[in-house]
Amino acid sequence: MRDRPHGYTIFLASMLALYGITGLLKGNGAMAVLVASLLIGNASSIVPRLFPGAHGLQFAASQTTGIMQDQMTFLIKSFFFFLIGLMFPTDLRQIAMAAIAVVFLMVMRVPAVLLSTRNMGLGKKEFWFLSTAITRGLAAGVLATLPIQAGVPGAENLAPGIFAVIVLSVLVFAIGFSIVDGCPTSQRSEIYRSMSGTS
After folding, report:
1. Each residue of 140-149: pLDDT tens digit?
2. Which end of the chain is more exposed for a tag (fewer CB within 10 A), N or C?
C-alpha cells in the first residue's frame, strides 16, 4: 500500500487493529502501537542492521497525509487537554508534589543540555531556552492512565498528579519561551532548529 491513495488510512486502521488485538491478548495496546510506529518510522535504519543487505522502506508523508494527520492531532490534543482540565487535582499536596517533580526535571535538564550541545556553540539565551523545554505531554498523560486500567491499587491518584506535572511543566516552558522573544527572528529560527535536534 506504499504511495497508494488510501495507504495512510489503512496504516491507521492497522494500528487500531493492533491495539484491539493486543488488548484481547491481555497486553498493553498503547505500548504495542508505540513500538510498532517506532519500528515502521525507523525501518530504513533498523532493517539493514537486522538483515544485512536488506533495504527498509522509509515512511514518506504526502500532502494529503499531512493534512489528515494535522486534523487528527488537533482532535486528539483537544480531547486530551479537556481531559487534563477534568482530572487536574484540587489537593494542594498533589500540586506541591507535581511542582517538586517539575523542579527536578528542570534541574536534570540543565546538565543534559550541556552534554548534548557542548559542541554546538549555543549562546546563553539558546541554552536557557533548551533548558526550559521540559514540557510533558500526550505520551505522559496516556501512560499515566495505564495503571488504572490494569487495576493497580492506589493508581487512581497517579493520573491527576501526572496531569498536574504536565500543566506546570507547560507553564515553566511558557515562561522560559519569553526569554527568546527579545532575540532577532533569524537567531530564533536557529534556536528552534537546535531544540528540535536535542529535545
Report:
1. 777 777 787 7
2. N
- DSSP single-letter state for residue 59: P
- Contact at 8 Å (CB) between 151 and 159? no
At 190, the amino acid letter reads E
The CA-CA-CA angle for residues 116, 120, 124, to 5°, reads 90
* CA atoms within a 13 Å half-sphere pointing along the CA-CB vector of 168: 21
Classify burial at 136, counting beta carbons within 10 Å of its beta carbon; exposed 0-12, middle 13-18, buried 19 or more.
Answer: buried
Long-range contacts of 142-150 (CB under 8 A, 24+ apart): 142/30, 143/30, 146/28, 146/30
Residues 6+ apart with CB under 8 A from 88: 160, 163, 164, 167
For cell 538483515, the residue is: 51
Length of the chain in terms of residues written: 199
Contacts of 184 (CB under 8 A, 6+ apart): none
Q: What is the pLDDT of residues 126-160, one digit of tens each?
A: 777 788 787 777 777 777 777 877 778 877 778 88
At 55, is the secondary structure helix, strand, or coil? coil
